[in-house]
Amino acid sequence: MRCGAIIAAAGSSRRMHGLDKTLAQLAGRPALAWVLDAVAAVPEIAELVVVVSPANHVAASTLCQATPLAARTVVCLGGTHRQDSVRAGVERLSPEVELVLIHDAARPLVTPELLRRGIEAGAAWGAAVAVVPVSDTIKQVDASGQVVSTLDRSSLVAAQTPQVFRRDWLEAAYRHWPPHAPPATDEAMLVERAGFPVQTFPGSPDNLKLTTEADLAVAAALLARRRQGAWA
Amino acid sequence: MRCGAIIAAAGSSRRMHGLDKTLAQLAGRPALAWVLDAVAAVPEIAELVVVVSPANHVAASTLCQATPLAARTVVCLGGTHRQDSVRAGVERLSPEVELVLIHDAARPLVTPELLRRGIEAGAAWGAAVAVVPVSDTIKQVDASGQVVSTLDRSSLVAAQTPQVFRRDWLEAAYRHWPPHAPPATDEAMLVERAGFPVQTFPGSPDNLKLTTEADLAVAAALLARRRQGAWA
Prior knowledge:
globular; seven-stranded mixed sheet
């Protein structure tokens, strides 16, 4: 199964005070550069589409051209929501691609091993999402901030990327999603709602998502720690 | 309302490879020392009970004696589960204490401001828990690892400590909890199940819980960042 990867790098970084997390400096290099390194180390990824915003188009294109992936990479503009952006990326994959790996540029600590685990799980199950156990106690609250209930943590997981899907399932899920529904928070949610079985596989606690500026310090600390060993 | 604080420091640190997170070194000082600093800066806390394990009893006692809190601090041994440990601590508070603040030693980045916010919320509502928005997509999975559903993130929060309760509500909740039920993952859960309304107040994303060794690097990075400014 020919695999193509989509890197979602068109986010608005609202909680970063205007700093684009795709280009945020981490141990001296932009977050996107770390992701491209990991992707370049996975030969099973035959094609790559990096979906960017108008604001980071030039910088992201320059980064992509500087990697060994350049010849098999397309940079394209995203849409209003994450879901639209990834969909625009999927449309740019060649017709031969049957398996689509999706990864957030805002998760720069992904490893080649984790990408490969995603591809294997996606090929085996048709739809697979990296998850980690939920270590927090999760509560449901009402609009006034009062607790409604504490959820049973043992049945909960936090979804990460990579998420890997059969292309035909993903495209069917896009067609199935009601046009005016609120956007999905990840692609697995689209595929679940279309009725396809989605399997989980182990992500990594280090594979954090840059959301706030504090996360940059955290990611830099994890990268420094990784340098002392191998890829986690 | 006289306020007493319980610091839960009797955890087994299972995911720390034998390292006790209460005593883990963070920027040159044990995690517990950072918590004691924050508590010492909140004069509203009239009494303190630090609940420890047999293994860290001596070290924790030494730390407590070295703080300005020493005269109003008791160190006692915990029980099998977190819930038993905190309960043992509550029993050591003087009868005058009407409001109980509970905080995890494994959250060393708590600030005096956050503790004070907890006390105000607990006094106002009777039961209050620090929470942060859930930034991850949370999914429910079945025993085989297949996704059952994606939860609506907008109604979910992750509970932290401090958690602050009227003492009479907390003690009623202990009596209400069935003797052979699985232990609660936080005190708010006990109080919720006893039918008392539990209100949320804003915690802090920096107020992370040390769970894995990687969290130590993360916490050190956040502490270094904090030194550049004030308490977050």
